[in-house]
Write a structure and sequence with these properties.
Oligomer: single chain
Order of helices and strands: HHEEEEEEHEHEHEEEHEH
Number of helices: 7
Strand content: 25-35%
Number of strands: 12
Shape: globular
């Protein structure tokens, strides 16, 4: 039987247990959009399928106005694994919210969450790879009411922002570096897994083989 929901800490299971199901050892997380269409993230032994969707898997306990910290990720799985290693965030249940956005983050998702949780600081749990780091920057840009294009060319990332072109080595690229380069400040906090792991799920699997 797949083990993730058996190894997660009690505080994590207590907070999230109503927001996923386990069918035949496959965990399922349902994303819904504003029109009620649903797609599902699947997790089982050797399989992790994250949808590409305009929907959101969203979890919060209190009223939206009470939420002070909003955590975003590509996958619900990464959110649960992050919380397993950082259970302190769950101590004040009414002040936190968690949203999985799927493989491709959209400006519509971000603007919806910004309107809903208007008192919240954004925290980003996207993976350490280039897709996660670009997602960090896109969220920061959209929260500033702008947009940008990112394209990889060899070892460099080409960024078109505010009618200017910037080039930065992919290895050096990060939200902090991007903000310094283009002159914005988003007050967003990024959380990346330690010890060289690409995602919090990878870190969890390594820690609990």
């Amino acid at each position: 039987m797949f083990y993730l929901d058996k190894r997660l800490s009690v505080p994590v299971l207590s907070f999230f247990q109503e927001h996923f199901i386990n069918i035949d050892s496959t965990l399922q997380f349902v994303f819904q959009n504003s029109e009620g269409r649903a797609v599902t993230e699947y997790l089982s032994e050797g399989l992790h399928l994250i949808p590409s969707t305009d929907g959101i898997w969203l979890v919060y306990k209190g009223f939206p106005s009470q939420v002070r910290h909003l955590f975003l990720s590509h996958s619900a799985t990464d959110i649960l694994c992050f919380c397993h290693f950082n259970t302190g965030w769950l101590n004040s249940a009414d002040s936190v919210a968690f949203a999985a956005l799927g493989l491709i983050v959209s400006s519509g998702q971000i603007h919806f969450l910004k309107r809903l949780f208007f008192n919240a600081k954004f925290h980003l749990l996207f993976d350490e790879g280039i897709t996660g780091r670009v997602s960090d920057c896109k969220v920061a840009i959209w929260l500033n009411g702008k947009d940008a294009d990112f394209s990889a060319n060899g070892d460099d990332l080409h960024i078109f922002y505010n009618q200017n072109k910037f080039i930065i080595p992919i290895q050096l690229f990060s939200l902090h570096r991007f903000e310094k380069m283009v002159g914005i400040r988003s007050n967003i906090r990024t959380h990346k897994p330690k010890r060289g792991f690409n995602s919090y799920y990878d870190m969890f699997v390594y820690t609990y083989p």
